[in-house]
Amino acid sequence: MILLANRSARGSVGARRATMDEPTKRTTTTTQLACIGLLAMGVLGAAWRAGKEVAIGDVAWELPVTLAPPSGFDLPTAIEALPVSGDQVPSVHAVSAIATPDGGLRAYWFGGSREGASDVGIWTAALPPNGTSWSGQQVAIDRPTTEDELNRHIRKLGNPVAFARGNVVDLFYVSVSAGGWSGSAINAARSEDGGIHFGTPERLVTSPVANISTLVKAPPIAYQDGSIGLPVYHEMVAKFPQLIRIQPDTGEVVGRQTFAGGPETIQPWIVVLDATRAVALLRRIEPDEPSVHISRTDDGGKTWSAPSPIGLPNPNASVAALHLGGNSILMAYNHSEEKRNDLSLARSDDGGLSWNRLGAVETNKRHPDESDKVDFPKLEYSYPWLVPDQRGGIHLLYTWNRKQIRHLRIPAQP
């Protein structure tokens, strides 16, 4: 089982419930003290970041399958998109997806009445091989169960990321006990039936400072010894990307590496090119350089370059990427400096040194199902996820106006 965290100091569920059920007066002073405490922990976390790296080690990552890069793509149009999430809840966001052994897909996202609400859960649905519709939409993990099984107060859930080896699926997701997303911790639960049902979640120990302010957004990379490299990022006080290495059998974090010169970038998406080379595509949070950023390694991940802009605009929004074979990379991103209303694809054929925008799959042109400006005051197509299936097909999933998760197939030309 993945991810063991020490629960000995948390107290019993019954004791916690009794405390929570008692009438309390939440004064302004208490709130202020809590905020001061969180700020102090953030400062300590920033100091820890500067001086307490744990070497990733010499373990090699699993190499990507060698493919002949496609000559091009037939870009789909938005009207071809399949709804993934259904209409069970009004607000959804942050999809991830895995290929299933039979050639289909399984997706995960968070959904509820609104982002950050207590009723938000981690949802899942499946697409059969060559399927034309997603089905089986259901809650895979909910907040009350996470709260009970972790034996701690949980305020909200978010950002699910799945990693599969056959029918064994490890689902990483974010929980917050107090404050906003900057107070997050990462949890994980394991499924042994292909990602439908999950066992007891455990809390990943990623930081010695209160174990908070760590989030996940992109897929892990696999190492040849069976360990996992999980791209993560921090948001309290200092915002920066990291890569942590986890031993799946024990849940121990055995390596931790901060990207060089990256305090203004988050949500690293790592693309392994070969035995020594990889790139990380990053979301930049500062407004002075509204562009997708990239960091590189040429020594198997021991060191990474300082992030630099790639020449394509981005409005402080998440990106996704996929290795196409050789030096070719496909990327999904928002092609704008200010808004998330243009979801585009771009391609690099030289390992990320230069990029060519292929075109948009969603734009600010309103379609009939989003023509009502009361229900859709602004258009948003965000948080893309690229995933190949077991048959070589390429798929793009994304948030559609915070109301649906949608899916497009990206047909490749030979």
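[next item in queue]
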Amino acid sequence: MKKILITRKLIKESEDKATKTFDPIFNNNDELYSQSKVIEMSKGCDGILSSLTDKMDKETINKLPDTIKIISNFAVGFGNIDLDAAKKRGIAVTNTPEVLSDATAEIGILLILGACRRASEGIVSAQEGGWKWSADYLIGKQLTGSRLGILGMGRIGQKIAKIAKSLGMIIHYHNRSKLSDEKEQGAIYHDNIKSLFSVSDVLSICCPATKETENMINKETVEYFPKGAVITNVARGDIVDDEALIDALNRRKIYAAGLDVYKNEPNLNPGYNKIKSAFILPHLGSATKDTRIAMANLAIDNIDEFIEFLSYPNDANFESDIYELIDWTENKFKSLDFKINRLETKTIPLLLASKHISDDYKTVLIYMHLDGQPVDPKKWNQENPFIPVYKIKDNESFIDYDSNKDMFGNLLF
């Protein structure tokens, strides 16, 4: 039985699952391990189930035991992991998207409501008592008829759009590419952020944190918004320049902010504490029991499947299974001129879940570098390796997933 280190305490159902699958090292006291302790405790382990609170930087990864084959991150992103360092060590990195979309979208709507309807001020007034009703007491912004801009129309963004539309909001969005009419559901596409921000009475940030999106809300871009706009963030703190947003709030360019994430978590920029219109939560996006169990179980499955497929190439049927799957994929996407290279080497993990093909699911190969960036499959070679990593339902398309960068990187087999 393979041995893994689980760096944070999981909900009991997930720890029971891990016990059935692996020889796990649990963190029974939910201690926040230092980097040196993670290195020490991972000796003899095949994988690490990490959390966003674990700083897996270059120095830490370089000191991990040679036995470590995979870091399975208990999160939708990889912000705590140095992907380049992991790649150089030959350590795979996975995450847990999709299973938290519903819960995170619910928090996204809560941020919009809380910021627009001055919930923070209302809570304080109710707790202090003695408040007096008047016709203009704690008047906020009504959602009906207002324009919601969604920055990043992936799964979470689409779910927020659906709920917001039911509340009478008019949906606008910016994405790396335009969605199909079916997925847009009447939303209005903008091909640049200036255009989107200029019509956003409320903005919901749902995009992944990348080099391109870091500090996308900054001193310059806040000026694109209508005066009195509301900015909410359910994605990652790195996307917002806190000082720029605090300044915009103080001078009332921005009416209110709703944040579930922020830089330097859990330490909030003290400037927000002085702003009554800041509605701020402690990163509760995925904080429901069902979602946290699903995330942890997926992280466990990621390790299990990865380790299993490391030995799968020795199976006599491996090559024929791969080519059968490739033929199916090429046929599916021939209208997109989507041609897949015949893989001529087994020197990298070929995570092709051909044995998992069923009537309900087909495994579709979407290629990416080990650092998490999608690539053109025609450019594959031994010096530029990448692996197929994503499974989608038969009625969904490659184009849909190509437009959702946050969907890449997870070994959903």
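[queue empty]
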